[in-house]
Structure formats: C-alpha cells, structure tokens
Amino acid sequence: LDLSNCSLHSVPPGLAEATTAIVLDLTENPLTTLPSGSFLGFIHLQNLTVPLTLECPGGSDAWQDVTVDRSSRLCQGQRNACNSSVELAWPCPENSVCAPDGPGLVQCLCDSPFHGYKCLREGTFPMLLFGGILGTATVSLSLLLWGTQRRKAKTP
C-alpha cells in the first residue's frame, strides 16, 4: 500500500480497513505522530516506511530490523510480542492465550470451551436462552406500549 507523498497530516481513518497489508509506505507526508491504535490488527505487516521524524509503531523492539535513511525510517519484520522475552505489562488471564494484534500490540483470546469476561465461563454461550429472553421482553414491551398508547393515537 503506497501512501507516500499524499500530503497526509494524520493517519487516514480508512487505513484501519487495510489490516491485510504486508508493505506500507507513509514517507514524504507531513505526519507529526502515529496514534497508538493506528496499526491495530496489522498482524501481516512486514515492511513499514515512515518519515524520519517518526518512530516505528510499537518501538524498535516490535521490529526485527529498523533502518534509518536520510529521509525515512524502514521498519522490517514485525516481531510477535507474545514470544518476546520481555514480560507483558498485562499478562493474559487463565484459560486464554496471547495472540499478536499489530506491531507491539497483543490480544488475549479465550481457549475453547471458555468464553466471557476474563475467560471465566466454561461451555458455549447460551444463544437460545439469550434470544428467548430478549425476544419475550421485546414482544411484551411492544404489546404494553401498543395497548397503552393506541387510544391516544385515535383522538385528533
């Protein structure tokens, strides 16, 4: 994805849709900062070229090789932060596993059959019970409102 010399003053919001990009060039743009969530989900990104004034997202520890040119910085070979020897600031809870989520970013995914907050619930999500309660509540509330409000709609 070549976004070089596009007069970008900030990271375009549509960039979040390009998570499958392998090569990204942001050189020759007047970018001042890269917000921390700009590359969330970019797990396939292997070559990122940014203006010299910017650092590689996630820091130099998130990349295997950082090369500085006279006008740009090339970040190559995204490292898996889950395999890093540096201890994570927020380790994943029990019943979950660490997964990369972009340069220097990680996410915790629940192991099967666990789900829910901090992966504490075992089994599958009770879809039938959830849908039944939600449907019953919606129909009941709709009938109540229809019954109480319909006479007001008939008067001019």
Automatic annotation (TrEMBL):
PROSITE patterns in the record: EGF_1, EGF_2
Domain called EGF-like: residue spans: 108-119
A biological process term (GO) from this entry: positive regulation of osteoblast differentiation
Presence of the UniProt keyword Transport in the record: no
Keywords for the protein's UniProt record, in alphabetical order: Membrane, Transmembrane, Transmembrane helix
Residue ranges of the TM segments: 125-146
Domain of life (superkingdom): Eukaryota
Presence of keyword Transmembrane: yes
Gene3D superfamilies referenced in this protein's UniProt entry, alphabetically: Ribonuclease Inhibitor
Protein name according to UniProt: ARAID factor
Organism: Daphoenositta chrysoptera
Gene: Atraid
